[in-house]
Design brief:
6-stranded antiparallel β-sheet, 6 helices, disordered N terminus, polysaccharide binding, protein serine/threonine kinase activity
Length: 307
């Protein structure tokens, strides 16, 4: 009779604890995150980047996100731009500005600037071309050496030979006196700064950025147009993030203090990695699971000894 009573008490305690802490439930203090993905459209996403807020490193989370239409986007104070590619071996990504001019289509452009506090910088191999500039533009100040008057002239001639120049009010093969070519790093002042260009201040209609010539510098239709940026990759040196990735998770952040979070495939956020059941065992939850296991073992032992 006593053993039956003890068995009954243990069984009810076990069921009660199981109801409070079901095996598949989300542990207290651990949240779910379904926003983080390892691909956006056709572009793979790896740390330090993320598909949305809370994914990747917080310094990049304010700048890069995956839109609802599956487009990886880059945001600055001057607009939102499409990321067309990321080369993780060189830490370089390429942006597409829909208002930037190319040989096929030229139009009035807006300014382009990087935020002053940013982990990105312009790639020195990029070539920036300012088009349709006023002859009174500070670019042509005799005391400044901003425009390339040497090899850059063939780039101006190439672009001004395009039919697209009609979009900024010029005729094909117009004089190139209103064109300016310069390479990063930008000169400081006069609207050309280390963080970008201010077209209204420079009195120019449009700009083009060329990150490659497609093996043919004499054929502007083959040139590769876009803004390539290099990012600081020192963020990945954190062993905590590497351990998270090794376990199949994605590195992210959470809370007001933007503390590290390992985001597992099942949507769980942990503070370490996804080994085991896919979430971190915290001190407030593991003892209860151990209690359930222990009580279950006792109950089974009693049932086997006293049928």
């Amino acid at each position: 009779m006593l053993l039956a009573t003890i068995s009954w008490l243990i069984l009810n305690s076990l069921l009660l604890l199981s109801d409070i802490y079901p095996v598949d439930a989300t542990p207290p203090g651990i949240s779910r995150n379904s926003k983080c993905h390892d691909v956006c459209g056709s572009i793979p996403i790896r740390f330090p980047f993320g598909s949305g807020f809370g994914c990747g490193h917080p310094d990049f989370g304010r700048t890069i996100k995956c839109s609802s239409s599956g487009t990886l986007q880059f945001a600055t104070s001057t607009g939102i731009y499409t990321i067309s590619s990321i080369d993780y071996s060189t830490n370089i990504l390429v942006l597409h500005d829909p208002f930037m001019s190319t040989c096929a289509s030229m139009q009035n452009s807006g300014s382009f600037r990087l935020d002053y506090i940013t982990p990105f910088k312009f790639v020195e191999e990029d070539t920036f071309v300012l088009l349709g500039c006023s002859t009174t533009s500070p670019l042509f100040d005799a005391n400044e050496d901003l425009c390339d008057t040497g090899s850059g002239l063939h780039i101006c001639r190439g672009l001004y030979s395009c039919k697209g120049v009609t979009g900024i009010g010029l005729e094909p093969n117009a004089p190139i006196s209103t064109c300016c070519v310069y390479d990063p790093p930008f000169a400081v002042g006069t609207g050309v700064g280390s963080n970008g260009v201010d077209l209204p201040k420079l009195q120019c209609s449009s700009y083009a950025s060329i990150y490659g010539f497609g093996g043919d510098e004499g054929h502007p239709m083959k040139w590769q147009y876009g803004i390539s940026l290099q990012y600081n990759d020192s963020y990945y040196n954190d062993e905590t993030c590497k351990n998270c990735v090794t376990s199949g998770g994605m590195c992210g952040f959470s809370g007001l203090n933007q503390s590290f979070a390992c985001i597992c495939r099942n949507g769980m956020n942990t503070t370490s990695n996804c080994f085991g059941r896919g979430y971190a065992w915290n001190g407030g939850w593991r003892p209860e699971m151990q209690t359930i296991t222990s009580l279950g073992g006792i109950l089974i032992s009693l049932m086997l000894c006293f049928p």
